[in-house]
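Thought: the user wants the 3D structure for the chain below. I'll pass the sequence to the structure tool as-is, report back what it returns, then summarize two notable features.
Action: structure_tool
Action Input:
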Amino acid sequence: MTREDNTKANRIRIFLLFFLFLAAFGFIIYKLVSIQYISADKYKIQAEYQHKDSFTLKSRRGKIIDRNGIELASSLIEKTITANPKLIKDPAKAAEDIGKILLLDKDELKQKLSDKDVGFLYIARKIDLKDANKISDLKLDGIYIEDEVKRYYPQNDLACTLIGFTGTDNVGLSGLELSYEEILRGIDGTQSAQKDVFGKIIQTNAENFSPPVDGGDIILTIDSQIQFYTERKLKEVAEQYKSNKAIAVLMNPKTGEVYALAQYPTFDLNKYADVEPENFNNLGISFTYEPGSTYKIVNISSALDNKRVNTQQIFHLAPSIKVGDRVIKEIHRSYGVDYTLKDIIKYSSNVGAVTVALSMGNKLYYDSIIKYGFGNYSGIDLPGEEKGIIADYKTWPASTIGALAIGQSIAVTPIQLVRAVSVIANGGYLITPHVVSETKTGSGIIEKKESANKVQIISSQTSKDLKDMMLSVVEEGTGKEAQIEGIKVCGKTGTAQKANKNSAGYDEGLVIASFIGFAPYEDPEVACVVIIDEPQGNMEAIWGGTVAAPVFSDLVKFALNKIH
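Observation:
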């Protein structure tokens, strides 16, 4: 090759290199212009994401406290492990180390930590502090440990369905936790900070700091000792009679303050995820049943108050009575008797109760039932309450009034029944039951909950007359097992057949044994209902007076001693 050819080839190489350099320089200029001007907003956002962050400062959920200051629900600070897969250098090693400590599937965790399209994920929430410290000691890039609030129930299963529980995010899901969510929940705070390339905080921004506001506390009318004793007694009687469930409500008949709202079985609130959802129902306000003879106080008091009958009246009662197409019989009597109203209540006469109901007629009796609050909500400050069932009198078959007189063809709840017996105890007033006495905000402001207006639905004289009748039940009649030494007790027994679920009529082998009442007679301080569902045993031994009345006696005696 000639010298001229070499010179020409060198020039071509120089021009190529020049143009390559020029293209590279032009590309650099283009990228600079693109980054700084054309796509500046995009890269600014990415830079801020990498170097700035806003952290949530968790607030504490308010406490639930009984009337004596005992905590039934509180909040604990626990540790939560999070990750930013974009900053994790070795996902396999991180997954192995963390999985070993937290007993997590290493392959599944590795797959999550390897996803570079994700900037945040939870690894484990609300873990033990000891495990969190072990993970912290690993000093893994892209792995973070944050504080998180966990709901804790120090009394475990006490008043479980009443208190309710929260979900993973501390939002109330049932009970008081749900109905008082707005008061109990706090407001989370925020904190801005600058981070280095590895996501570690290097400086906080005091200007963008919003402190958390803790939730308010609620103070209950519930007495945890009375509640505990009641739950223990219900467990004993349920196990003794192999009963499906047992329920009791104790309440101040004058104010509507609920001292205990208990049931059996219970469950541990700290382990509610292991429990079948059907067990979450608060039976004291949601269990509907035919009340049987405990309901006789409603039609007796209503007829007396409406002057359809009087306390001196003598009723000539046969051993059975026909109402419409149905014959209603006495349980323990096959002969005729002459009874007063007191005798009808004392001996729980079916024929007597029907006779009294018939004296009112359908409309007046129906109006009285509604006036007592049946077929409607009691107004208690809890979610999940049932209204019960009562058909409009215009649709009643001829036999319905007779069935209602003995506590059939109507469905009530325990809270409705204890509310009704409180009318007799307090001089004739229908009150609104409640379980919260006051609320206290995070800033310390206390708001006392006033009892709802009470409405007089029967006269004070009628109330006194019924008190005397119910006193005779316990002193001389079917409720002798409810007696308390040194205290006059008023009550009414009930043994109701359970409706057959598969067809019309009743299952003769299944009953609900119950007792309602109050004490002391002179100035009632505690009203109570005890309900034992399907007690097993000899049919002659599983009456309300033999199964439920002794429990009532124990509960009311304990409650009276406790509140004094």
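Final Answer: Structure generated. The CA atoms of residues 3 and 9 lie 10 Å apart. The first strand starts at residue 52 and ends at 57.
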